[in-house]
Amino acid sequence: MINFKLKPATEGEPYIELNKLLKATQMAENGAWANQLISGGNVKVNGTVDTRKRAKIYKGFVVEVNKNQIQVE
User: Fold this and answer.
1) Coil, strand or helix: which one is 65?
2) Is residue 43 exposed (0-12), middle (13-18) or buried (19+ Cβ within 10 Å)?
3) Cβ atoms of residues 70 and 1 within 8 Å
4) What's the pLDDT score for residue 27?
5) For position 24, what pLDDT does the model report?
6) Kind of pairing, strands 43-45 and 48-49?
7) What's the CA gap between 36 and 14, in Å, rounded?
8) Sign of CA dihedral 30, 27, 65, 15
9) Is 39 left (phi over 0), alpha (psi -120 to 50) or beta?
10) Which domains does the chain have, with CATH numbers?
């Protein structure tokens, strides 16, 4: 499991977009690969397949990519 710590937001609750999270955790080499993983149904957010490339991922979410889990803190 990978633990990913969100940076504090200037306004509101901090989040990261799903495709950016995959790049930041090196689950995808680049944005195109991240988008392909997401649109192909290979990414789960909190146990449910999510095909939204820019889905907002908040603290406490668990993202799964090809049996690798990312815990967002």
Assistant:
1) strand
2) buried
3) yes
4) 96
5) 96
6) antiparallel
7) 25
8) negative
9) alpha
10) 2-72 (3.10.290.10)
Alpha carbon of 25 to those of 9, 12, 43, 63: distances in Å?
19, 23, 14, 11
The torsion angles phi and psi of 64, rounded to 5 degrees, stand at -120, 130
- Which residue type sits at 40? G
- Per-residue pLDDT at 11: 76
For the chain, the residue count is 73
CA end-to-end distance (rounded Å), the chain: 12
pLDDT number for residue 3: 97
For the stretch 2-48, pLDDT in tens is 999 998 877 778 999 999 999 999 999 999 999 999 999 999 999 99
